[in-house]
Amino acid sequence: MHPRHIPRIVLSFFLFIFLFGGCSRVDHKQSALDPKGLVAQSQYDIFILSVWITIFLFCAVGGCLLYVLLKYRAKNQEEAMEIPSQSHGNSKIESFLILASTVILVILAVPTLQGIVLMNKVPDPDDEATLTRLNLDREQIEGAITVNVTGKRYFWVFEYPQFGIVTANELVFPVSKAIRINLTSEDVIHSFWLPKLAGKMDLMPGHENFMWFIADQEKILSRTDRDGNPYKTDVPTAMPAVFDGSMRDAVFAKQDFNATFEPVGGVFYGQCAEFCGNSHAYMSFRGLAQTDEDFGLWVERLQTAQNPNLKPSKWNSSSEYPKGSIVIAKDESLIDENSEREYRAVTDVKKGNEPSFSSGAWEKLHSDDYEIGKTIFESAQCGQCHALDRTGIGSKGPNLTLFGLRTSLAAGWMRNDRPNLIKWLQNSQDIKFGNLMWNGEGVDDKHGVRSFQPIPIDEVNDSPLKKEEKRLLNEEKKVRVNQLVTYLLEQS
User: Fold this and answer.
1) In CATH, what class is 312-373?
2) How would CATH label the architecture of 27-66+92-311?
């Protein structure tokens, strides 16, 4: 190779690096290069510092190497055969290199240690110097929200002990408060990763880890479109309310579910970042930022739904009911003579006025499909694994309270809509192979009692795993599945 070609090759190499780097998107759903909170910003700053130090070292060492190769290259065969003089080296240069390396390590180590301390401890609200340095208000720390996160194969449990509520797979939080995250696992090692807000931390069985974050509202409102142009949104657009379904509608309306860009700024995408089994890649979750008011309303909705003392009671002929009262009474037209449904009083009801279709004093609270779906949910023993109107912290499956308000299904893997939920209920293994939700068929015993027999999926068998065969659903079963879906999606 002729020496005059070397500069061209070197220049082409660096141009390729810069051009290749331009192909990435900073505002990707799970980009750590687009921090939207204090902890994530600290990690980003450390990363950028290490990148610049690495570039400097690469250029310095590579430049010296290139200079030596060019200046002292052998010009002919005779020089190539000559053995250079053997010496110890240059002590001054060696000392300088050791000192320079130490200085560089210190430059990198100091902010790294500061970042580790920041990530592992919520600032003391009485430490005014630290709050000032971090640009935080005392109220943001004193009003911190605690969330106990439990990783299970293959979904997430979010418990809010301050409010006595539990949900799954979607972490709802106020944008103006610090969020304490206590992490543990029920089965294997998982890793909680919320790159734009909180970084990454492992969850281990029998051990509790900790992390925290606080979102930056101004950064959430400042966005970059698909073409790389910056723009700013308002609060209702960036953080639609979860409690009334506005967040779900906004996420569904603005984009394809699998797009890499998320137009709704208050939606953050998390992921299990530690291999935990067959469906590890499908163990996702969402973080949903809310204003203080909307977060409070969401908490109230969940508290009401999970409070056993607020459940409707059965109709009593000896009781009077004021307008708006909700009771449970029989409706034989649904499935059989034992079927029940919820009624609401449209006026003050006197004693003995039994709820019925013909009664002008009562109205059906839900559609027939909803009520039949509820019966199916109960008779199919779905409640053995899924809590729907209670906390159910120890449930085997995800808590389904207010399920209809969620933006995603199957732990963040699918859009939470009717077609996808039907597919999931018919055969979840086709969508998320290895998940622990069993599909069963109703079986009547000799006494006419129906039970649901699970179709086991053995994940630890030495023989090759076989996907569960699809069940052929007749028209009646399809109708039942649709009714169950109606019941679940109307949990809002």
Assistant:
1) mainly beta
2) Sandwich (2.60)
